[in-house]
Amino acid sequence: MKGAIAGVLAAGFGVAAAELLAAVTRPAAGPLVAVGGAVVDATPAAVKELAIRELGTHDKPALLTGIAVVVALVAAAAGALGRRRRWVIPAGAGLLGLAGVAAALSRPASVPFDAVPALLAAAVAGLVLWSLTRPSLTGASSTFSSAGPTGTPAPMRSLERRRFLRAAALVAAGAVAAEGGATLVKRSRGDAAARSREAIRLPAAADPAPPLPAGVAPGFRTANTAFYRVDTALTVPRIDPDAWSLRVHGMVGRELRLSLADLLRRPLIERDVTLNCVSNEVGGPYVGTARWLGVPLAPLLREAGVAAAADQLVARSVDGMTIGTPVATALDGRDTMLVVGMNGEPLPLEHGFPVRMLTPGLYGYAGACKWLTELELTRFDRFDAYWVKRGWAADGPVKTASRIDRPRPFDRLPAGRVTVAGVAWAQHRGIRAVEVSVDGGAWARAELLPVPSADTWVQWRYSWTATAGPHSISVRATDGTGAVQPAARATPFPSGATGRHTISVTVT
User: Fold this and answer.
1) Do residues 8 and 71 share a domain?
2) Domain extent at residue 157
């Protein structure tokens, strides 16, 4: 037991020391985050879908907790074996260190220094475990029978126990101190980033969004704090807006490099746009509407001079994420933009501060890169972006979808008039009609509430005369081209979910 405890404490101290070093130098190089990122990259699409569906925004803490548990178990095993087989300690520390180094250097935005925290973790953990498993502390060389001619005398066993407990307490205190220091540094960085964001004064839009039309119901826009977040960043990047710049290069006539101040001096547009994640299941929550403020992308690309052969725009994030977008969607007249504001304030840190991309009509994975730092003009046959490498479709157009928000599934309702309501979306095509079916009966038209444009969802409502008993309610939408939302169910992978949202309720 002493060896296992020693292993866990040693690993905790090593990881805490590495996290402190990373927090002071390069937060993305922390071993837990680096290993977590490598795990995310290697996880099959079906498992990612399951994690997003079951855990939602808790998927990242769950992953990091799982990694910490695995490290603790391995360390416990190394400690238990290392009491008698001393070679296990350096071997185990070396293997974990190499795994951490490989994970850190596998990150798209890594630099050679990113290997150092993992090496530090391995060295500290190995040295501490070697010290904690000395025979003078654990009695590993003694026979652990009751006191007698060949056993360890009781006073000696008591002395060994006290020595071990003192050493273990010191290691635990050191681990707590190191982790506390890392937490304070991270919090300080976060506070500095928040202050930098709050200090930004966004200019008024040269082309403002019109007021929402009369008759729009409450909740048309999604508050920033309630807006869904789905990405692979295990820690939110903290970017200094004064040091930030955007590089536009590749198949262009001339390369551009713009600071945030340069972007804010350009004419800005303001638009209400619905954004949704390709991982959203039928009836799922990963969709929201916000009022976005940004620089229209088309004039900027024309200024750079896009080569006629370029058909893909690759956006790169500060953490190395790549998002591939069809060039046509930036030049066909839709309001593709480089976003700097969301619902009247600078972009929240978790939604891409200081600048993200937004392409109406495309899922986020194909047109909405967060923490943007680079735009490269290239071709689809020359480069596969992050999600395309993992089997997702390259173009990512949003599929027609609808959702029932009221009543909730399995609600118990009184008989009589019941309002069934929800939203439907087909960005850039718009919604022509929404229909509701009760218990598999005929489809009946729902009332559509006004919308500001075809790039937002449509709120709808239907008045139903509910009778006693169990009932199922289904919804389907028809987009602006006349295409009806398909009934066939398909999972989000590889190009977005299909099917009709259906709920069950009981009328009393």
Assistant:
1) yes
2) 2-141+152-192
